[in-house]
């Protein structure tokens, strides 16, 4: 596929995804914060379904030798970055994807959030250039450097000889179990709400 064709496919795919995100109001931040703070699981269920589809798709590609999975060590820097990013998402009121959508809709706060996202990425690139972590990332556990190494379905497939799709199906099964648990919780909440309404109606009568 030529470079122009790849750009056209990426543009079409990005446009479709952007439209779906904008119309569905999907947000990774809401998928977590709404579930924790408001016991609302609409975005959480959508995120779980997307993760299941992507997991099976990506590991399927890995099984046949296609795709280029990322390989990066997990360490203290990863946990610190995720923690800070999570705080930033909650303060911004949106994840990076939905921030782009809100900025396109004219939300000034989202524009500022995007601007300082780029500023933060630039500052991080400067820190990364002299930090010792890149030199200590070998893919293997390195406790003095606070690195745990990396592993994904591809590396497990290479080391154990088990097709990557197997690990993808196991992860998807776990995600589906979480999805089912959320559905049961929603049904229980709905039944409790209906019971409360009936009791209120009986008292008023």
SS-derived structural category: mainly alpha
Quaternary organisation = single chain
In total, the number of strands is 0
Q: What is the terminal-to-terminal distance? A: 71 Å
Overall pLDDT level:
82
Shape: globular
Sketch the topology as an H/E string, one letter per element.
HHHHHHHHH
| Computed CA radius of gyration, to the nearest angstrom | 22 Å
How would you describe this structure to a colleague?
This protein is mainly α and 205 residues long. It contains 9 helices and no strands. The chain has helices at residues 3-24, 28-38, 42-63, 76-92, 96-104, 108-130, 133-136, 153-160, 164-204. α5 (96-104) packs across α6. The longest helix has 41 residues, at 164-204. It is globular, with a radius of gyration of 22 Å.
Question: Quick summary of this structure?
Answer:
The protein has 205 residues and is mainly α.
Strand-helix topology:
Layout: H1 3-24, H2 28-38, H3 42-63, H4 76-92, H5 96-104, H6 108-130, H7 133-136, H8 153-160, H9 164-204
Helix pairs in contact: 2-3, 3-9, 5-6, 8-9
Main features:
single chain, 205 residues, mainly alpha, 9 helices
């Amino acid at each position: 596929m030529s470079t122009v064709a790849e750009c056209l496919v990426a543009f079409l795919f990005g446009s479709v995804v952007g439209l779906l995100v904008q119309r569905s109001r999907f947000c990774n931040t809401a998928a977590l914060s709404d579930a924790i703070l408001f016991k609302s699981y609409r975005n959480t269920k959508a995120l779980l379904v997307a993760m299941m589809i992507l997991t099976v798709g990506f590991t399927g590609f890995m099984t046949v030798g296609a795709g280029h999975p990322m390989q990066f060590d997990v360490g203290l820097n990863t946990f610190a970055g995720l923690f800070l990013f999570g705080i930033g998402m909650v303060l911004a009121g949106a994840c990076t994807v939905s921030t782009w959508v809100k900025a396109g809709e004219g939300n000034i706060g989202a524009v500022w959030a995007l601007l300082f996202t780029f500023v933060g990425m630039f500052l991080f690139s400067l820190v990364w250039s002299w930090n010792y972590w890149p030199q200590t990332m070998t893919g293997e556990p390195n406790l003095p450097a606070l690195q745990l190494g990396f592993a994904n379905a591809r590396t497990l497939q290479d080391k154990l000889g088990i097709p990557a799709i197997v690990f993808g199906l196991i992860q998807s099964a776990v995600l589906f179990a979480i999805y089912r648990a959320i559905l049961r919780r929603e049904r229980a909440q709905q039944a409790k709400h209906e019971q409360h309404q009936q009791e209120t109606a009986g008292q008023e009568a």
